[in-house]
Amino acid sequence: MSSREGKRNQPKLVPLADLIGRERKNEKLQKPSLKYGCAAQSKKGEDYYLIRTDCERIPGNALSSFSVFAVFDGHNGNAAAIFALENLLDHVMGLIPCGTGREDWLQALPRALVAGFVKTDKEFQRRGETSGTTATFVIVDGWTVTVASVGDSRCVLDTQGAPVANLTVDHRLEDNVEERERVVASGGEVGRLSIYGGVEIGPLRCWPGGLCLSRSIGDNDVGEFIVPVPHVKQVKLSDVGGRLIIASDGIWDAMSSGTAAKACEDLPAELAATQVVKEALRMRGLRDDTTCIVVDIIPPDNLVTPSTPPKKHDKLRALLYRCNPRGSSSKSSKKLSAVEELFEEGSAMLAKRLGAGDSSGQSTSGLFACVVCQVDLAPSEGISVHAGSIFSTSSKPWQGPFLCADCRDKEAMEGKQPSGIRVP
Q1: Could you list the residue range(s) of the whole structural domain that residue 194 is in?
Q2: Residues 204 and 246 in one domain
Q3: Strand pairing partners for 291?
Q4: What is the value of pTM for the model shown?
Q5: Which residues make beta-bridge pairs with 227?
Q6: Which ranges of 32-138 does DSSP label H, i.e. alpha helix?
């Protein structure tokens, strides 16, 4: 064999960078499909929702697309819910540099959501209105789902072969012991409504103000212990897909997460949302605004209709979960049902939520910048998130990220007051 023939018979070597590039390209082609539906019944006119499936991480690049689904349940009027609906997404996106790669973007999302919630609250409170709202804000990018929430609207995940999982934490004082302790430590009082004769009725509330929730956007009249800092959870689904149910408390006051998932089982997303609302009204009546969004994250291989359609009951389950129509519980299907938890943080302290990482709060102009509202800070104007009370154990109160005075005033301090340690 000649040397030329030997070279011709050798396997063709591909640079590692090319292989990685091919894998990434293949991942983009294998993004799941989304089907969604929404249903609502209004009693007070204070529930609002957001559905955006045309968002782009890089403007003009369809391959960078992601979707947003959100529910806002207002109280004491609808002003805060409307403001959050119109501004929260822009605030979150404005806190992530344009053109960021997908992996870095997903990693930056939890922080951006925290800062975006606080910025939205700060700007609304400048209007001097006393309305407030819950917010459950869901970003779906491929197989990755990131959820941020304050209040008691909820997002649940239903996946094949696993119990229904809550991706949010209810911030109701009645049910959340940690939040009750935080409010008391911050200077608030927790108790029930007292009527004539000292009889206490109703759920636990925060006083002054009488709010049943410990976290919200707005509520300018109830003190600094009601905070806009969201619980954030980020998960990555396996390629079996799954179903999200995002709803206001008009649903969750009537049924559990598992009951809601069961109520719309085997229905397509559009009908599923309607069925959940219908079931909630049947169980409890229309006592409150009731809103439900159902989102199905569907594996791309299952978009092809089989040549011999199975029964309607099994067809949708196969579409959603890529499972054997007979409901096989083999080891492989159980393995596919795993959900990888990427991030979860529920602390109400900005020092904990924004203080990790390498960010120093340096802005493009060369000055320090507020990590929440991005306003430039001249030396001595910013306050480090590490600067707690005079009893703080932090050894780095001079390091960033930094907050402007306005954003620091709204920090959830868990009974602590700022020490006034500023940018050196």
Answers
A1: 172-210
A2: no
A3: 40
A4: 0.80
A5: 215
A6: 79-94, 102-125
